[in-house]
Design a protein that fits this description.
It comes from Micromonospora antibiotica. This protein has helices at about 5-15, 20-30, 30-40, 50-60, 60-65, 80-90, 105-120, 125-145, 145-165, 170-185, 190-205, 210-225, 250-265, 270-285, 290-305, 310-320, 330-345, 350-360, 365-370, 375-380, 390-395. The chain is an all-alpha fold. It has 4 domains: about 1-70, lambda repressor-like DNA-binding domains (434 Repressor (Amino-terminal Domain), Orthogonal Bundle); about 75-180, no CATH class; about 210-230 and about 245-325, no CATH class; about 345-400, no CATH class. The relative contact order is 0.07.
Length: about 400
């Protein structure tokens, strides 16, 4: 993930913390030989538990250990190795079976951990984890075929798609999302298929295929509705521990994606109708943050439709409340960057800069590890009205 191997960075940070190899080993509960091998690159740090333990002992964020030195942010080209590894995993059509049958519960736990990392915008960590995780899920499905592993495969490919979008690879993200939908359709469960359609719609939107995104999301949402009488739950799971989506806000999320795609096409009427329906579904679901997610989508849609003043007013009303803080850090930070773009369009560079800095505080990786953020920071930082901290951020991101 950087010019220096992880082991070399461990050694550099250990020296900065004034620890000998023996002292560092004692803190970790490892041997001095283990530390020496890690620092020389003889032993690779692959387990997430070991990576976290090392970062905590060195008193640094895991992203710093994976992506570079303190106070720095990875240049766009430093993500190339991680992305190439993910692409290589997607291109492995024949995965060698493991020595022992895979533990499906363990694979599910690894996938849940990776999904949680995504919600916290830990993209460098995910680029390290995803190749092995994709192989593990595919091996589990090959040796233990069935609805459970099909559902895991759909979730795994969907997560790959979302991460590839963050590193500005929409075309490959669309490929991964398409595989997610194909795996989900094998389950014949409309809820699993609907969950897989969310990253597909995002990939299509980011790739400029907004009509296809709108149609895919709207069709998936429609398939959740037949036969459902008012007042019945939006989703149920008949088999404990299966991979059917039990998220009652899934219908709202699909309608939200369709609405954003419609706004991107300039179809204000369809966008407002779809977002209104998303709002009703979110209220029915009663999920924490659901209403805020719809309001955030309205801000993005209004900006896309050229209604930037209305968008910024709505944004200020949204963030003045508490509900939006229920959204995951990744979602909040990504939204704040969209709000910053709306402020730029409205000519308010001071508020745009504040939104960018708040996004950085909310989810560091969303600002420091997304190539698409750099042009926004460059534009805001050049303005005399930008907050002083924006100049430092621009220098860190190498966009000055």
């Amino acid at each position: 993930m950087n010019e220096l191997p992880v082991g070399r960075r461990v050694a550099q940070w250990r020296v900065r913390r004034n620890m000998t190899q023996q002292q560092f080993a004692d803190h970790l509960g490892k041997s001095k030989s283990w530390v020496d091998k890690v620092e020389r690159g003889v032993r690779r740090l692959e387990q997430v538990s070991n990576l976290r333990m090392v970062a905590e002992t060195l008193r640094i964020d895991l992203e710093v250990l994976l992506a570079g030195s303190a106070g720095e942010s990875a240049r766009p080209e430093t993500a190339t190795t991680g992305v190439d590894a993910v692409l290589a995993a997607l291109a492995r059509y024949h995965v060698e079976p493991p020595a022992r049958p895979p533990d499906v519960a363990e694979v599910r736990t690894r996938l849940a951990h990776a999904e949680q990392s995504y919600r916290h915008a830990r993209y460098p960590e995910l680029l390290v984890l995803l190749p092995g995780l994709v192989d593990a899920v595919r091996a589990a499905r090959a040796l233990r075929p069935g609805r459970a592993t099909d559902g895991l495969l759909a979730r795994g490919y969907g997560l790959v798609a979302l991460v590839l979008l963050k590193v500005d690879r929409p075309e490959v993200a669309w490929l991964a999302a398409d595989r997610a939908v194909a795996a989900a359709q094998v389950t014949k469960d409309p809820w699993v298929a609907a969950a897989a359609t969310v990253p597909l719609a995002q990939a299509l939107r980011h790739g400029g295929r907004r009509r296809a995104a709108m149609e895919a999301a709207a069709v998936a949402a429609h398939r959740l509705l037949p036969g459902r009488s008012p007042g019945t739950p939006l989703a149920t799971s008949s088999t404990p521990g299966d991979d059917r989506s039990a998220d009652p806000a899934l219908l709202a999320t699909l309608l939200l994606q369709a609405g954003l795609a419609a706004a991107g096409r300039g179809d204000g009427r369809a966008a407002r109708d779809l977002l209104d329906r998303a709002g009703r579904a979110a209220r029915e679901a009663g999920a924490e943050g659901g209403g805020a997610a719809v309001e955030a989508a309205r801000v993005v849609a209004e900006a896309a439709l050229g209604e930037v003043t209305a968008a910024t007013v709505r944004h200020e009303r949204l963030v003045a409340g508490d509900e939006w803080r229920w959204l995951p850090p990744e979602h909040r930070a990504a939204y704040l960057l969209d709000a910053a773009r709306a402020y730029v369009l409205d000519g308010n560079l001071l508020c745009a800069g504040r939104a960018v800095l708040e996004a950085e505080r909310t989810a560091h990786g969303e600002v420091h590890h997304r190539p698409a953020v750099r042009p926004l920071v460059a534009v805001v930082a050049r303005s005399p009205a930008a907050p002083p901290a924006l100049t430092r951020l621009a220098a860190t991101l190498h966009v000055t």
